[in-house]
Amino acid sequence: MPAPQRATFDAEELAVVLSHFDLGVIESVTEFARGSRRSPKIGIVADKGKFVLKRRSGRRAHADRVRFAHHVQARLQAVGFPMARIIPTRVRGDTFVQIKEDLYELFEFVPGHPYHQSAAESQDAGLVLAKFHVATEHINAPRYLPVPQGDYHDAAGVRTGLCQIGAALSSSDSFAGTEAELAGLSQFLLESYDHAVAVVNGLGFNGWPPRVIHSDWHPGNLLFRNDKVIAVIDYDSVRLSRRVADTANGCLHFSILAGGDPATWPAELDEERYRAFRSGYESVLGLSDEERRALPHLMAEALIAECVPPISETGSVGRWSGYRVLQMVRRKLFWLAEHGDRLTRLDP
User: Fold this and answer.
1) Would you tell me how many other CB atoms lie within 10 Å of the CB of residue 291?
2) d(CA 204, CA 314)
3) CA-only gyration radius of the chain, Å
4) Closest Cα partner for 258 from 203, 188, 329, 164?
5) Among residues 59, 55, 60, which one has the least CA distance to residue 7?
6) What is the mean pLDDT of residues 222-229?
């Protein structure tokens, strides 16, 4: 199945946007073919340095959400958090450009490499997430600025998407004859999601204090050098929720075994990387017993929630068949259910 086409900039658009910034003479521009296909990025080399321009479109292009994200980033920058600095526009106080329904942000370029799947990198990723939570604990947004809330836990959108998945996949000729199995698979995922939600709520999730969380803590949003996180580069999803939702999502993404066709992904997680991530986090912020017990169930919720939106909308996840992805998710859910108790402990 072909991948959805990646959004790009055109020359006129680029010229108009860059005119809002004081960068000096532009020497070169290079497309960054990574990250979200809906939020294209351009690398820029200019007299005043190297930068990355990002466009937000569609649902992501909400001015108040960007203002809140920049409010959080300003706090992080003030305490020396590893991040790419936001470049202000020529207009005093403005940190992004809005043209019709699109928003544009400019950041300094931070040289680093992607995640190499090492335990050392995983540990520092957990530690830096804890530092994020420390730095954002007492952030108060201006009264005029609405704060996004909620996450993948107990989300109505996830349930709605699961109910739509069967129709999204069965409409493709390549899935003819598998309608009954698709229905059973969708029902299994919905029941698994509801079970995880019930356990987490029973442990007290809704009574835990809400705070600003990153809400998208995964390897693609971090840059590394010498086993250390040198920059967290995406804050599009910051919102108010419970910190353990962030922690569980990080535990999942920094331990998942993936690559190539989802049909070949192993069911198990990399427990060394999982424990490295957790030990990094808990070296700064300890988790309560209830939060530790919630982790594997929140990881199950996150795993399901990750694939539901793209599959319910397009029938695929990137270039991969949604059906094969769902089968992979089912295998991993079985593994989490069998080994979840062990994951609540830091020691094997």
Assistant:
1) 21
2) 35
3) 21
4) 329
5) 55
6) 97
